[in-house]
Protein backbone atom coordinates (compact mmCIF):
# COMPACT_ATOMS: atom_id res chain seq x y z
CA UNK A 1 0.00 0.00 0.00
CA UNK A 2 1.45 3.40 -0.91
CA UNK A 3 1.49 5.80 2.02
CA UNK A 4 -0.93 8.76 2.10
CA UNK A 5 2.10 10.99 1.52
CA UNK A 6 3.02 9.21 -1.70
CA UNK A 7 -0.58 9.44 -2.95
CA UNK A 8 -0.65 13.19 -2.23
CA UNK A 9 2.74 13.55 -3.95
CA UNK A 10 1.43 11.76 -7.04
CA UNK A 11 -1.68 14.00 -7.15
CA UNK A 12 0.52 17.09 -6.87
CA UNK A 13 2.65 15.88 -9.80
CA UNK A 14 -0.47 15.24 -11.91
CA UNK A 15 -1.66 18.78 -11.16
CA UNK A 16 1.68 20.21 -12.32
CA UNK A 17 1.54 18.09 -15.45
CA UNK A 18 -1.94 19.46 -16.34
CA UNK A 19 -0.71 23.01 -15.60
CA UNK A 20 2.25 22.46 -17.92
CA UNK A 21 -0.07 21.30 -20.75
CA UNK A 22 -2.34 24.33 -20.38
CA UNK A 23 0.49 26.85 -20.20
CA UNK A 24 2.40 25.46 -23.19
CA UNK A 25 -0.60 26.04 -25.48
CA UNK A 26 -0.72 29.78 -24.76
CA UNK A 27 3.03 30.54 -24.99
CA UNK A 28 3.55 33.07 -27.82
CA UNK A 29 7.26 33.96 -27.73
CA UNK A 30 10.67 32.93 -26.41
CA UNK A 31 10.17 35.08 -23.32
CA UNK A 32 7.12 32.95 -22.53
CA UNK A 33 9.23 29.80 -22.87
CA UNK A 34 11.85 31.20 -20.49
CA UNK A 35 9.21 32.15 -17.93
CA UNK A 36 7.76 28.69 -18.06
CA UNK A 37 11.22 27.09 -17.80
CA UNK A 38 11.95 29.19 -14.70
CA UNK A 39 8.68 28.35 -13.02
CA UNK A 40 9.21 24.65 -13.44
CA UNK A 41 12.97 24.14 -13.49
CA UNK A 42 14.59 27.14 -11.75
CA UNK A 43 17.27 25.87 -9.31
CA UNK A 44 15.89 27.96 -6.47
CA UNK A 45 12.11 27.95 -6.62
CA UNK A 46 11.12 25.84 -9.64
CA UNK A 47 8.21 23.42 -9.09
CA UNK A 48 10.37 20.46 -10.05
CA UNK A 49 13.21 21.58 -7.74
CA UNK A 50 10.80 21.93 -4.82
CA UNK A 51 9.40 18.48 -5.52
CA UNK A 52 12.94 17.02 -5.50
CA UNK A 53 13.50 18.65 -2.11
CA UNK A 54 10.44 16.93 -0.70
CA UNK A 55 11.97 13.51 -1.41
CA UNK A 56 13.89 13.61 1.87
CA UNK A 57 10.59 13.30 3.81
CA UNK A 58 9.85 9.86 2.33
CA UNK A 59 10.71 6.52 3.94
CA UNK A 60 13.64 4.71 2.32
CA UNK A 61 11.26 2.23 0.63
CA UNK A 62 9.16 4.91 -1.11
CA UNK A 63 12.01 7.32 -1.92
CA UNK A 64 12.93 5.73 -5.29
CA UNK A 65 9.23 5.54 -6.35
CA UNK A 66 8.66 9.22 -5.56
CA UNK A 67 12.02 10.09 -7.14
CA UNK A 68 11.02 8.36 -10.36
CA UNK A 69 7.75 10.38 -10.48
CA UNK A 70 9.56 13.74 -10.19
CA UNK A 71 12.18 12.67 -12.67
CA UNK A 72 9.49 11.69 -15.22
CA UNK A 73 7.89 15.11 -14.76
CA UNK A 74 11.26 16.83 -15.29
CA UNK A 75 11.83 14.97 -18.57
CA UNK A 76 8.30 15.83 -19.68
CA UNK A 77 8.81 19.53 -18.92
CA UNK A 78 11.99 19.56 -21.02
CA UNK A 79 10.31 17.77 -23.93
CA UNK A 80 7.24 20.01 -23.89
CA UNK A 81 9.36 23.17 -23.81
CA UNK A 82 11.42 21.99 -26.82
CA UNK A 83 8.19 21.28 -28.67
CA UNK A 84 6.97 24.82 -27.94
CA UNK A 85 10.28 26.28 -29.17
CA UNK A 86 9.92 24.29 -32.37
CA UNK A 87 6.37 25.53 -32.84
CA UNK A 88 7.49 29.15 -32.38
CA UNK A 89 10.17 28.76 -35.05
CA UNK A 90 7.60 27.63 -37.65
CA UNK A 91 6.24 30.80 -39.24
CA UNK A 92 2.47 31.08 -38.88
CA UNK A 93 0.31 33.32 -41.00
CA UNK A 94 -0.49 36.54 -39.25
CA UNK A 95 -4.02 37.79 -39.21
CA UNK A 96 -3.14 40.36 -41.87
CA UNK A 97 -1.83 37.64 -44.20
CA UNK A 98 -5.11 35.69 -44.22
CA UNK A 99 -7.34 36.89 -47.05
CA UNK A 100 -10.87 36.37 -45.79
CA UNK A 101 -12.33 37.16 -49.24
CA UNK A 102 -10.80 33.98 -50.76
CA UNK A 103 -13.25 31.12 -51.36
CA UNK A 104 -13.10 28.31 -48.81
CA UNK A 105 -11.51 24.96 -49.59
CA UNK A 106 -14.07 22.69 -51.22
CA UNK A 107 -14.28 19.05 -50.30
CA UNK A 108 -14.12 16.95 -53.47
CA UNK A 109 -17.41 15.21 -54.20
CA UNK A 110 -17.55 11.79 -55.76
CA UNK A 111 -18.63 11.64 -59.39
CA UNK A 112 -19.50 8.98 -61.94
CA UNK A 113 -16.67 7.55 -64.05
CA UNK A 114 -16.58 8.77 -67.69
CA UNK A 115 -17.47 5.31 -68.99
CA UNK A 116 -20.48 5.15 -66.66
CA UNK A 117 -21.66 8.56 -67.89
CA UNK A 118 -21.45 7.34 -71.47
CA UNK A 119 -23.17 4.06 -70.58
CA UNK A 120 -26.00 6.09 -69.02
CA UNK A 121 -26.48 8.09 -72.24
CA UNK A 122 -26.81 4.84 -74.17
CA UNK A 123 -29.21 3.42 -71.57
CA UNK A 124 -31.40 6.55 -71.67
CA UNK A 125 -31.92 6.29 -75.44
CA UNK A 126 -32.97 2.63 -75.27
CA UNK A 127 -35.12 3.17 -72.16
CA UNK A 128 -37.03 5.85 -74.05
CA UNK A 129 -37.66 3.35 -76.86
CA UNK A 130 -39.21 0.91 -74.37
CA UNK A 131 -36.23 -1.40 -73.78
CA UNK A 132 -35.48 -2.84 -70.33
CA UNK A 133 -32.02 -3.17 -68.76
CA UNK A 134 -30.82 -6.58 -67.59
CA UNK A 135 -27.65 -7.92 -66.00
CA UNK A 136 -26.16 -11.29 -65.10
CA UNK A 137 -23.07 -13.11 -63.82
CA UNK A 138 -19.55 -12.17 -64.93
CA UNK A 139 -18.34 -15.70 -64.18
CA UNK A 140 -20.09 -17.91 -66.72
CA UNK A 141 -20.20 -21.49 -67.85
CA UNK A 142 -18.85 -22.59 -71.21
CA UNK A 143 -22.45 -23.41 -72.16
CA UNK A 144 -23.85 -19.88 -71.70
CA UNK A 145 -20.84 -18.06 -73.10
CA UNK A 146 -20.34 -20.25 -76.20
CA UNK A 147 -22.41 -23.35 -76.72
CA UNK A 148 -25.89 -21.83 -76.42
CA UNK A 149 -24.71 -19.11 -78.82
CA UNK A 150 -24.07 -21.67 -81.52
CA UNK A 151 -20.34 -22.21 -81.08
CA UNK A 152 -20.01 -26.02 -80.95
CA UNK A 153 -17.21 -27.39 -78.66
CA UNK A 154 -13.80 -27.07 -80.37
CA UNK A 155 -15.21 -24.56 -82.87
CA UNK A 156 -12.30 -22.44 -84.13
CA UNK A 157 -14.40 -19.29 -83.68
CA UNK A 158 -13.78 -19.66 -79.93
CA UNK A 159 -10.20 -18.58 -80.60
CA UNK A 160 -11.56 -15.20 -81.62
CA UNK A 161 -12.43 -14.61 -77.98
CA UNK A 162 -9.20 -14.90 -76.04
CA UNK A 163 -10.99 -16.37 -73.10
CA UNK A 164 -9.85 -16.23 -69.46
CA UNK A 165 -10.77 -19.69 -68.18
CA UNK A 166 -11.22 -20.44 -64.46
CA UNK A 167 -11.35 -24.20 -65.09
CA UNK A 168 -12.57 -26.49 -67.90
CA UNK A 169 -16.13 -25.29 -67.49
CA UNK A 170 -16.03 -21.85 -65.82
CA UNK A 171 -14.74 -18.70 -67.47
CA UNK A 172 -14.95 -14.90 -67.32
CA UNK A 173 -17.62 -13.91 -69.85
CA UNK A 174 -16.17 -12.61 -73.12
CA UNK A 175 -19.40 -10.80 -74.07
CA UNK A 176 -22.72 -10.06 -72.39
CA UNK A 177 -24.66 -12.43 -74.69
CA UNK A 178 -24.95 -15.13 -71.98
CA UNK A 179 -27.33 -12.75 -70.17
CA UNK A 180 -29.60 -12.69 -73.25
CA UNK A 181 -29.60 -16.51 -73.25
CA UNK A 182 -30.57 -16.53 -69.55
CA UNK A 183 -33.38 -14.02 -70.18
CA UNK A 184 -34.73 -15.99 -73.18
CA UNK A 185 -34.72 -19.20 -71.08
CA UNK A 186 -36.82 -17.50 -68.39
CA UNK A 187 -39.08 -15.05 -70.25
CA UNK A 188 -41.63 -15.50 -73.00
CA UNK A 189 -41.40 -13.02 -75.90
CA UNK A 190 -41.93 -10.16 -76.55
CA UNK A 191 -38.43 -9.32 -75.29
CA UNK A 192 -36.80 -5.91 -75.67
CA UNK A 193 -33.66 -5.56 -73.54
CA UNK A 194 -30.15 -4.16 -73.44
CA UNK A 195 -27.35 -5.58 -71.30
CA UNK A 196 -24.50 -3.25 -70.40
CA UNK A 197 -21.64 -4.70 -68.36
CA UNK A 198 -18.05 -5.77 -67.83
CA UNK A 199 -16.52 -8.36 -70.12
CA UNK A 200 -13.09 -9.99 -70.08
CA UNK A 201 -10.54 -11.09 -72.66
CA UNK A 202 -7.00 -12.36 -72.35
CA UNK A 203 -5.28 -9.23 -73.69
CA UNK A 204 -1.98 -7.52 -73.07
CA UNK A 205 -2.79 -3.85 -72.42
CA UNK A 206 -1.97 -1.47 -75.29
CA UNK A 207 -3.64 1.69 -76.66
CA UNK A 208 -6.67 -0.28 -77.93
CA UNK A 209 -6.79 -3.31 -75.59
CA UNK A 210 -7.34 -3.96 -71.90
CA UNK A 211 -8.28 -7.31 -70.31
CA UNK A 212 -11.49 -5.92 -68.79
CA UNK A 213 -13.76 -3.49 -70.61
CA UNK A 214 -17.42 -2.61 -71.09
CA UNK A 215 -19.93 -3.78 -73.63
CA UNK A 216 -23.58 -3.24 -74.33
CA UNK A 217 -25.66 -5.78 -76.20
CA UNK A 218 -29.29 -5.58 -77.17
CA UNK A 219 -31.94 -8.15 -78.04
CA UNK A 220 -35.44 -7.93 -79.50
CA UNK A 221 -37.64 -11.03 -79.88
CA UNK A 222 -41.26 -10.95 -81.06
CA UNK A 223 -43.57 -12.17 -83.77
CA UNK A 224 -42.92 -10.56 -87.14
CA UNK A 225 -39.57 -8.89 -86.32
CA UNK A 226 -37.53 -8.17 -89.45
CA UNK A 227 -34.18 -6.77 -90.55
CA UNK A 228 -35.99 -3.46 -91.16
CA UNK A 229 -36.58 -3.13 -87.39
CA UNK A 230 -32.90 -3.78 -86.72
CA UNK A 231 -31.89 -1.17 -89.28
CA UNK A 232 -34.37 1.50 -88.21
CA UNK A 233 -33.68 1.10 -84.48
CA UNK A 234 -29.89 1.10 -84.73
CA UNK A 235 -29.85 4.05 -87.12
CA UNK A 236 -32.14 6.02 -84.77
CA UNK A 237 -29.92 5.08 -81.80
CA UNK A 238 -26.72 6.29 -83.49
CA UNK A 239 -28.36 9.55 -84.59
CA UNK A 240 -29.54 10.19 -81.03
CA UNK A 241 -26.04 9.51 -79.72
CA UNK A 242 -24.00 11.38 -82.33
CA UNK A 243 -26.44 13.83 -83.92
CA UNK A 244 -29.07 13.77 -86.68
CA UNK A 245 -26.71 14.59 -89.49
CA UNK A 246 -24.27 11.69 -89.23
CA UNK A 247 -23.98 9.17 -92.04
CA UNK A 248 -24.48 5.48 -91.18
CA UNK A 249 -23.97 2.39 -93.33
CA UNK A 250 -24.71 -1.32 -92.96
CA UNK A 251 -22.29 -3.89 -94.34
CA UNK A 252 -22.54 -7.72 -94.44
CA UNK A 253 -20.62 -9.62 -91.76
CA UNK A 254 -20.58 -12.91 -89.87
CA UNK A 255 -21.29 -13.97 -86.27
CA UNK A 256 -22.06 -17.55 -85.22
CA UNK A 257 -25.23 -16.43 -83.37
CA UNK A 258 -26.84 -14.25 -86.08
CA UNK A 259 -27.88 -14.87 -89.68
CA UNK A 260 -27.74 -12.65 -91.63
CA UNK A 261 -25.24 -10.42 -89.83
CA UNK A 262 -24.30 -6.80 -90.41
CA UNK A 263 -21.61 -4.49 -89.19
CA UNK A 264 -22.68 -0.87 -88.68
CA UNK A 265 -20.26 1.90 -89.63
CA UNK A 266 -20.45 5.62 -89.01
CA UNK A 267 -18.73 8.49 -90.78
CA UNK A 268 -15.38 9.30 -89.21
CA UNK A 269 -15.77 12.23 -86.81
CA UNK A 270 -12.02 12.77 -86.62
CA UNK A 271 -11.47 13.71 -90.27
CA UNK A 272 -15.02 14.25 -91.55
CA UNK A 273 -14.23 11.64 -94.26
CA UNK A 274 -11.66 13.99 -95.72
CA UNK A 275 -8.19 12.82 -94.58
CA UNK A 276 -6.72 9.92 -96.61
CA UNK A 277 -4.09 9.55 -93.84
CA UNK A 278 -6.56 9.78 -90.90
CA UNK A 279 -5.31 7.81 -87.88
CA UNK A 280 -8.81 7.11 -86.59
CA UNK A 281 -10.42 5.64 -89.73
CA UNK A 282 -7.27 4.73 -91.68
CA UNK A 283 -8.40 7.01 -94.48
CA UNK A 284 -11.53 4.97 -95.30
CA UNK A 285 -13.80 7.72 -93.92
CA UNK A 286 -15.81 5.08 -91.99
CA UNK A 287 -15.57 3.84 -88.42
CA UNK A 288 -16.96 0.46 -87.35
CA UNK A 289 -19.31 1.06 -84.42
CA UNK A 290 -21.26 -2.13 -83.76
CA UNK A 291 -22.10 -5.64 -84.88
CA UNK A 292 -25.64 -6.90 -85.35
CA UNK A 293 -27.87 -9.45 -87.03
CA UNK A 294 -31.06 -11.51 -86.97
CA UNK A 295 -30.93 -14.13 -84.21
CA UNK A 296 -29.88 -17.50 -85.66
CA UNK A 297 -32.78 -20.05 -85.50
CA UNK A 298 -30.41 -22.49 -83.73
CA UNK A 299 -30.01 -20.02 -80.83
CA UNK A 300 -33.82 -19.86 -80.47
CA UNK A 301 -34.00 -23.69 -80.45
CA UNK A 302 -31.37 -23.77 -77.66
CA UNK A 303 -33.66 -21.70 -75.42
CA UNK A 304 -36.91 -23.38 -76.46
CA UNK A 305 -38.28 -20.48 -78.47
CA UNK A 306 -39.99 -21.65 -81.67
CA UNK A 307 -38.15 -20.03 -84.64
CA UNK A 308 -41.19 -20.68 -86.86
CA UNK A 309 -43.27 -18.44 -84.58
CA UNK A 310 -40.74 -15.85 -83.43
CA UNK A 311 -37.89 -13.89 -84.92
CA UNK A 312 -35.49 -11.35 -83.44
CA UNK A 313 -32.47 -9.20 -83.85
CA UNK A 314 -29.46 -8.41 -81.66
CA UNK A 315 -26.46 -6.14 -81.55
CA UNK A 316 -23.26 -5.69 -79.59
CA UNK A 317 -20.85 -2.80 -79.16
CA UNK A 318 -17.85 -1.87 -77.04
CA UNK A 319 -18.63 1.06 -74.73
CA UNK A 320 -14.95 1.98 -74.27
CA UNK A 321 -14.28 1.85 -78.00
CA UNK A 322 -17.20 4.09 -78.89
CA UNK A 323 -16.45 6.49 -76.01
CA UNK A 324 -12.88 6.78 -77.35
CA UNK A 325 -14.28 7.64 -80.75
CA UNK A 326 -16.90 10.07 -79.41
CA UNK A 327 -14.48 11.99 -77.16
CA UNK A 328 -11.26 11.55 -79.18
CA UNK A 329 -9.52 9.62 -76.40
CA UNK A 330 -6.28 8.26 -77.87
CA UNK A 331 -5.61 5.39 -75.45
CA UNK A 332 -8.17 3.04 -73.84
CA UNK A 333 -5.94 2.78 -70.75
CA UNK A 334 -6.77 6.45 -69.99
CA UNK A 335 -10.13 5.18 -68.73
CA UNK A 336 -8.53 2.86 -66.19
CA UNK A 337 -5.70 4.96 -64.74
CA UNK A 338 -7.91 6.96 -62.34
CA UNK A 339 -6.05 10.16 -63.19
CA UNK A 340 -8.46 12.84 -62.00
CA UNK A 341 -7.08 15.35 -64.53
CA UNK A 342 -8.44 12.99 -67.22
CA UNK A 343 -11.68 12.01 -65.46
CA UNK A 344 -12.66 15.61 -64.61
CA UNK A 345 -12.77 16.57 -68.29
CA UNK A 346 -16.01 14.58 -68.52
CA UNK A 347 -17.71 16.39 -65.62
CA UNK A 348 -18.05 19.82 -67.20
CA UNK A 349 -21.78 19.60 -67.85
C1 LIG B 1 -19.83 -7.02 -81.67
C2 LIG B 1 -20.93 -7.89 -82.14
C3 LIG B 1 -22.98 -8.89 -81.50
C4 LIG B 1 -24.88 -10.12 -80.81
C5 LIG B 1 -23.72 -9.44 -80.52
C6 LIG B 1 -26.44 -11.71 -79.81
C7 LIG B 1 -26.88 -12.29 -78.66
C8 LIG B 1 -27.76 -13.32 -78.72
C9 LIG B 1 -28.23 -13.79 -79.90
C10 LIG B 1 -27.78 -13.18 -81.03
CL1 LIG B 1 -28.27 -14.07 -77.29
N1 LIG B 1 -26.90 -12.17 -80.98
N2 LIG B 1 -25.57 -10.70 -79.76
C11 LIG B 1 -25.31 -10.18 -82.12
C12 LIG B 1 -24.55 -9.60 -83.12
C13 LIG B 1 -23.37 -8.94 -82.82
O1 LIG B 1 -21.82 -8.23 -81.14
O2 LIG B 1 -19.06 -6.57 -82.43
N3 LIG B 1 -19.75 -6.79 -80.37
C14 LIG B 1 -18.75 -5.97 -79.79
Question: Notable features of this structure?
Answer:
single chain; 349 residues; alpha+beta; seven-stranded mixed sheet; two-stranded antiparallel ribbon; 11 helices; 19% strand; elongated; binds 2-{3-[(4-chloropyridin-2-yl)amino]phenoxy}-N-methylacetamide
What does this structure look like?
The protein has 349 residues and is of the alpha+beta class. It contains 11 helices and 9 strands. It has helices spanning 4-26, 30-41, 47-54, 63-89, 114-128, 142-145, 177-186, 227-242, 297-302, 319-327, 340-343, and strands at 132-133, 139-141, 170-172, 191-200, 212-222, 248-255, 258-267, 286-295, 311-318. Strands 1-4-5-9-8-7-6 form a 7-stranded mixed sheet, with helices on both faces. A hairpin with a 2-residue loop joins strand 6 (248-255) and strand 7 (258-267). Helix 1 runs parallel beside helix 4. 26% of the residues are buried. The model has no long low-confidence stretch (mean pLDDT 91). The structure holds 2-{3-[(4-chloropyridin-2-yl)amino]phenoxy}-N-methylacetamide. 2-{3-[(4-chloropyridin-2-yl)amino]phenoxy}-N-methylacetamide binds next to helix 7, strand 5, strand 8 and strand 9.
